[in-house]
Amino acid sequence: MHGDVSNAWEHVNPASHPAHPIYAGPASPLERCRSRWFRASVGATINSMLIAFSVSPLGGGESVGDAVAEAIRVVRESGLPNETNAMFTLVEGEWDEVMAVVKRAVDVLAAQAPRVSLVLKADIRAGVTDAMTAKVAHIEARLAEQ
Fold first, then answer.
1. 95: which of 23, 82, 127, 132 lies 20 to 30 Å off by Cα?
2. Rounded to an integer, what distance in angstroms lies between the CA atom of residue 20 and that of residue 92?
3. How many Å apart are CA 121 and CA 50, to the nearest integer?
4. Across the 146 residues of the chain, what is the mean pLDDT of every consecutive 10-residue run?
5. Are 72 and 34 within one domain?
6. What is the pLDDT at residue 11?
7. CA distance 44 to 113
8. Distance from C-alpha of 12 to C-alpha of 129, rounded to nearest angstrom
9. Are residues 114 and 64 located together in one domain of the fold?
10. Strand spans (E) along 47-146
11. Residues 72 and 128 in one domain
12. What was the pLDDT predicted at 28?
């Protein structure tokens, strides 16, 4: 069980560990996954993440394309695996690296506009790498079976 994190959330159920002090009250999934108990139970740390984020300047004029391009340039220059589509930019890496890239992208826009909108969705999972392509490959394989 220690090397397998595929069913890690089953082992973080507060009801299954009521005596453990970290589960004395409600905790968010992020707080649970960063706890020492959780890391010990799955044998890994939760630092790997895949995020989808969208950032846009507000109040700086009608066209946002040039500003958004500068934010995406920050992502691409980070060296982290990334992909941009019409709605979001995906970035994969360790927590601190990814969040630093998001902050730099926001900072680039904040220098150009009085307000910045940020939408972020994260998949945080221990020991997972190449999630950006592996998730899509898994779905494509399922579709090919049918």
1. 23
2. 32
3. 8
4. 44 47 51 51 66 93 87 97 96 95 97 94 89 90 90
5. no
6. 46
7. 41
8. 22
9. yes
10. 48-58, 82-84, 89-94, 115-124
11. yes
12. 58
